[in-house]
Amino acid sequence: MNHAHAATRPLSSGQARMIAQAFLPDRIRDGYWDYWYSRTKLGSDPLYPGVCEALRGTTAPLLDLGCGLGLLAHALRGHGIGLPYRGVDNDAGKIARARLASTRVGLQDAGFDVVDLAREYPAHRGSVTLLDVLQFVPPDAQSRALDAAIAMLVPGAKLVIRTGLADGSGRAHVTRAVDVFSRVLGWMNAGPSRYPDADALRARFEAAGLRYEFTPLYGRTPFNNWRVVATK
Questions:
Q1: H or E element that contains 215
Q2: 116 in any annotated domain
Q3: Overall number of domains in the chain
Q4: pLDDT by residue (tens digit) across 18-35?
Q5: Angle at the Cα of 201 (from 135 to 152), degrees rounded to 5?
Q6: Contact at 8 Å (CB) between 124 and 145?
Q7: pTM for the complete prediction?
Q8: What CATH number corresponds to the domain at position 90?
């Protein structure tokens, strides 16, 4: 009930390069940051294969809360998973680039919107993903995000979370340091607040009558990343 095996390998270099090409700039002066970020992230982090594995076989529409550049939409299509997808994020710049990349490669049934999750949650019924989001919001906002996501689930739908956990491990310290550095670089518009506690998550899922599993999802990285899947 608590632990499961997940895909721990990132995408192949060829798959990562193919998806990243959607983020090549129209003009050299626009820079190659999104391209190289996407290519490196997809080629080194087992996040997307792990999430695709969790969602395979589901049919409910998917809402990706805090979607960033929308890489999950590309990974899902690359894995042959055609769930209706909507990504939302409070970073208008990333959403604009996500829309452009989606249009370039003709992603079907995929949309992106600017939504400030600190103020509102979009209407949705289906599956939900929260990938590398919870640690960047304060505890009260974490609770609101989890309650909102759980309320969106329909029978057979899944809540898929990727997050670091507050377990005091060496990996946890490395994760926090890198998250802080991402804020310093300006890639994230917030620094880490508090990492979720696994027992608290379990209690919340049990109270909602959800089945759940916790799976290490750090692969060959030094980070304390876990995939948490709760099913209605």
A1: strand 211-216
A2: yes
A3: 1
A4: 999 999 988 887 789 999
A5: 85
A6: no
A7: 0.88
A8: 3.40.50.150
226 falls within a domain: yes
**Residue 159 three-state SS:** strand
Side chain identity at residue 60, one-letter code: A
Angstrom distance (rounded) from CA 123 to CA 120? 10
In a 3-state reduction of DSSP, which class is residue 15? Answer: helix
- Is residue 47 a part of any domain in this protein? yes
Residue ranges of the chain with pLDDT lower than 70?
Answer: 1-8, 168, 170, 172-193
Q: What are the strands, taking DSSP E only, across 34-186?
A: 62-65, 85-89, 110-114, 127-131, 158-164
The pair of structure tokens assigned to 9 is 């390998």
The parent domain of residue 19 ranges over 13-231
Angstrom distance (rounded) from CA 183 to CA 193: 12
Identify residue 81 by its one-letter amino acid code.
I
Using the 8-state DSSP alphabet, how is residue 196 labeled? P
Token pair of 70 as six digits: 């929308």
Q: What is the mean pLDDT of the chain?
A: 88
